[in-house]
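Extended Data, record DUF4065 domain-containing protein
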Amino acid sequence: MTATALQIANALIQKAHQENNPISNMKLQKLVYFAYGWYYAIKEERLFEEPIQAWKYGPVLPDLYHKFKLYFSNPIPVNHFFVPDGQISEEHQELVDKIWEVYGRFTAGQLSDRTHMHDTPWDRAYHQGLSNVQIKDDDIKEHFKGLMQPA
């Protein structure tokens, strides 16, 4: 069952406010990317259909970025909800909770640094001066599969 990137983003914003740790657009972009990557690696299906592009500061979902860009690097208020199609599933909420547990303590810059590491999907897709370069889904899935710990 797929969600929308906006549904996942809004669940993350709400979680951040519950934890008294509001997030910026940049941090939101990275958290949504990590949610997508882990979900794809574990479930073998895309979390949402929106494309992810390689921008200067890491992976970005352009439509999501534009919805929240008016806040610049300031925290996104919890009441800024753009969810036309309702709440996320229990499975997706569990994913959001886990992503927040693992990555929520990091700053936007620290999360950006993680996406910029050598041979990450962003590193393979990003070329300075080019814009709108989509990160390949297979690269994302394989990268996160490679991060999995053996059982």
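Summary. Residues 25-43 form the longest helix (19 residues).
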